[in-house]
Write a structure and sequence with these properties.
The structure is a homodimer of 339-residue chains. By secondary structure, chain A is of the alpha/beta class. Helix content of chain A is 41%, strand content 22%. Chain A is built from twelve helices and 13 strands. In chain A, the strands form two sheets. Chain A has a seven-stranded mixed β-sheet, sandwiched between helices. Chain A has a six-stranded mixed β-sheet with strand order 9-11-10-8-12-13. In chain A, a hairpin with a 3-residue loop joins strand 10 and strand 11. In chain A, helix 3 runs parallel beside helix 4 and helix 7 packs across helix 8. The radius of gyration of chain A is 20 Å and the shape is globular. The relative contact order of chain A is 0.15.
Amino acid sequence: MKIALIGFGTVGQGLAQILRDQAAQLRAQYGFSAEIVAVATRSRGSLVHPAGLNPAALLDAIRAGSLDAYPDTPGLQRAWHSERIARDADADVLVEASPSDLDTGGPALDLCYAALTSGKHVVLANKGPVVVAYAELMAAAQAAGKRLLFEATVMAGTPSLRLALEALAGAEITRARGIINGTTNYILTQMETGMSFDDALAQAQALGYAEADPTADVDGWDAAGKARILSAALFGRTRRFEEMTVEGIRGLTQADIAHASEAGERWKLIAEVTRDAVTVRPVRVPLAHPLAGVSGGTNAITYTTALLGDVTLVGAGAGGVQTGFGLLGDLLALHRCGA
Amino acid sequence: MKIALIGFGTVGQGLAQILRDQAAQLRAQYGFSAEIVAVATRSRGSLVHPAGLNPAALLDAIRAGSLDAYPDTPGLQRAWHSERIARDADADVLVEASPSDLDTGGPALDLCYAALTSGKHVVLANKGPVVVAYAELMAAAQAAGKRLLFEATVMAGTPSLRLALEALAGAEITRARGIINGTTNYILTQMETGMSFDDALAQAQALGYAEADPTADVDGWDAAGKARILSAALFGRTRRFEEMTVEGIRGLTQADIAHASEAGERWKLIAEVTRDAVTVRPVRVPLAHPLAGVSGGTNAITYTTALLGDVTLVGAGAGGVQTGFGLLGDLLALHRCGA
């Protein structure tokens, strides 16, 4: 399988690391082998090689500061821009792992269309395109006879979408309810130890969980974007942010935390998705509920189903290799279906 | 898809109920339609109809006491024995949902071979054949170019095996650790409210959770059978009971429960499966661990993976419709692969 990779930050590097370290195992166990034939970054160079780039050398180069440090080899081409790679690279799959723009879909959205119309499957870690244009993208994929997969956009590589769409096929999911933003869950967990919101946020930033501008996490927009993806994927319902109730955790005080604790409850930022509505807001969850025990940066989703009752999945919600595994999961799914 | 069904107790009836109630939905959403062309019971009759039996009429008949009450229709045949159905029924899949015999595999084991060699896929809710002869059955399936699936044998229909084998493909599972017997978990949960072991067991029996002879559940053998299935499916390691450490919950006293509680811990009957060993025994789990919050008849498995860390799945561990959904999940998986 030939992969064109857009974006080579922690997630793209996570995928390259997996392909570097697990190649033999993946071939032996699943008959799967993949070559990265192109990599594009916004400001750190880009590389194309029809015979495949070496993942270890890619990682060495980017860690040295730029893909320009990748050694020259016969057939190597440099400085293709992303549009050209998405359209013209000789690849089976476009993997989009550049930063998400939840307002416009970012440049990634056009790259998705370019890839699909030029005969490539699309696998996304970037939430932007699915949040902004799910229905249009699925239609474009269907018209092209290609697939669009995006496991890595919700709960990193923890297979929340594959569980819902494949393993729970036929169980009739009526609701998803989850903790799908690790930063806010980390902050809430720290606040339970007595820390103030500001101190907990500063700690999350120091640990690299929260961005310098924490708005997207703290005010619920990251969770809301993922909830939009769940609404589209589970129920075929695309929603704009204006149609949703979104409330973050900025208003929660130590007193709120203490009151919940006295009542045997715990504040969690809960995204809830049904056929009819999508909400993100802090909720007091009884300690006995499976979501109450999900602490720190861990994520979890409970699917309520007609045939099976509640099914809860708990796992990593962030991390380069963890999210890179989400991309690998989609690539293996394409491989199982003969892509 | 034409189904021959062996065993028509709560699980077989659960599947028939799903096919009765969800037929239109399954056809619309997945293009899936299934006909039950044969049903066999040990002592309540059997029916064969090449054009398909009516699920509602099957359920009415069995609830009236016997399949003999199923109305006569042109083409209907009665009283085929199971062996003949497994071998000669014109079916795509044999579904085996008769009671498990973990020592010999029971009559079900021979039925599996008969079905595979006569060109049928096999889908099991019956643990016996996989516990006793996993490697031989997989070899027979491969030789026949057919598939052997058994999602319903562990955690009822909660997709514990599909999660591990498909959705976590490539993540490299190194350990499974779980609560996979609902009866003992129910008893332990009741004991935490102050009930004695004997009273909690009596209550579980009154509610239909525990059998009249509770040995298989209480002494850990049901969990051990499921752990053998996990060992085979995850690691390709088949094990005999004699090679495993199996300890039930019969020895736990109110004092043990109280001591754990004082230490912020909770007794759980934990099955642990690695490449090297399989154990089932009561373990004191810290309250903060995801498995500690799993109460009553609910089941859970934590898979430890190299790439993704811990992934925990929580859901139903018993029930007719819930286990019937496990069968449906396997049938849909066959359908996705073009069976």
